[in-house]
Specification:
Length: 328
């Protein structure tokens, strides 16, 4: 990879009703960014980009005020609340036109922004993806910790590669963001897509802090929606489970058939019982298998319509050789 000696960095911050924390977060992030600028690690026109995800409070007013005070602060405003993933995608897409490096971080600074300089340093070593990983989730509630552990366990069982205890605090180089933007699905599960893209990556560990002010924007129903999106957009394994269960039921029916025949031979069976039980079991099993076959086709259609790229090229020395000698 061609390293940009002094990259332009954009820090993308999704914000949904973050009025109580925004000012303080903006100052902390800018302090860290300006240190990087004065030490010539990033360009002086690096930016902090707040994406207002349809907040109902004064978040957008605060963002515009910050912009008037200092041109380092910029913003995008959604027409309504689309969700954190959409805010991240929008911020990254816009920032990628002008940046060499993009860092995404939550507005509440639960994730430690002080590792940002280390992230930038890693990128200067040729690393394209630097994951911020929490080594301590003590600040999260018992329920959040346990449900997160369950989620990572289940995703691993489904064969989806995720970075455990990593949320949306990460650095990406421009070429990774460009690759990410080729995944056009409407409900992208960014945490699952990025490891799939490949590219050299590293992890940096930090201690997750409690939210400084305001409250979590992830009530239970949003957490369930998020987890379901992760599971369903990466795997058709739940459909397979239905198939295996159907086969199990049919196997059970077959065993029952043998048992019933033996009972018949002994002549101690209640009339009508065998035919009812066998039809219930066989039909049940057969229906499950039939549903799972339809599901397999639906699953395939689902995978196709996402139009994920078939491959991503990291380096191409072939095309470059022709650039200067275009055919006439
Ligand atoms: N967020 C967003 N849109 C939403 C929900 C959340 O942009 O619909 C932002 C939010 O402002 C914050 C980040 O996503 O910057 C993470 O949200 P939060 O801190 O509430 O999540 P938690 O830390 O509780 O998991
Ligand atoms: Mg938070």
């Amino acid at each position: 990879m061609k390293l940009v000696s002094q990259p332009r960095l954009t820090i993308v911050v999704p914000c949904y009703n973050e009025e109580p924390v925004l000012q303080a977060s903006a100052q902390v992030l800018n302090g860290i960014l300006q240190k990087l600028v004065t030490t010539n690690q990033v360009r002086s026109d690096s930016k902090i980009l707040f994406v207002d995800d349809g907040s109902q409070d004064t978040t957008w007013d605060l963002i515009t005020q910050l912009g008037h005070q200092d041109a380092v602060f910029t913003g995008l405003k959604f027409s309504r609340n689309y969700g954190q993933e959409s805010a991240l995608i929008a911020g990254m897409e816009v920032a990628n036109h002008y940046s060499d490096l993009i860092i995404t971080i939550d507005a509440d600074l639960q994730d430690d922004p002080h590792i940002i300089p280390d992230m930038v340093a890693q990128s200067q070593q040729g690393i394209d993806v630097v994951y911020g990983v929490r080594n301590d989730r003590a600040s999260d509630s018992w329920f959040k910790r346990t449900s997160a552990e369950g989620f990572y366990w289940f995703m691993k069982k489904l064969g989806v590669e995720l970075v455990p205890n990593h949320s949306d605090f990460r650095l990406l180089t421009s070429r990774v963001v460009t690759a990410l933007m080729t995944c056009k699905e409407t409900n992208p599960f960014i945490r699952g897509i990025i490891p799939q893209l490949g590219f050299p990556s590293a992890r940096l560990y930090y201690k997750r802090q409690p939210r400084q002010a305001g409250e979590s924007k992830y009530p239970l129903h949003k957490m369930i929606q998020f987890a379901l999106n992760g599971i369903l957009s990466f795997s058709i394994a739940p459909i397979r489970m239905v198939l295996y269960f159907g086969l199990l039921v049919c196997g059970g029916a077959l065993a029952m058939l043998i048992w019933i025949l033996i009972q018949h031979a002994h002549g101690d069976v209640v009339t009508g019982w065998s035919s009812i039980m066998l039809s219930v079991w066989f039909l049940g099993g057969f229906q499950l298998i039939a549903i799972s076959i339809i599901g397999e086709y639906v699953g395939r259609t689902f995978t196709e319509v996402k139009h994920r790229p078939r491959f991503i090229i990291q380096t191409d020395t072939y095309s470059k050789t022709f650039k200067s000698t275009e055919p006439t």
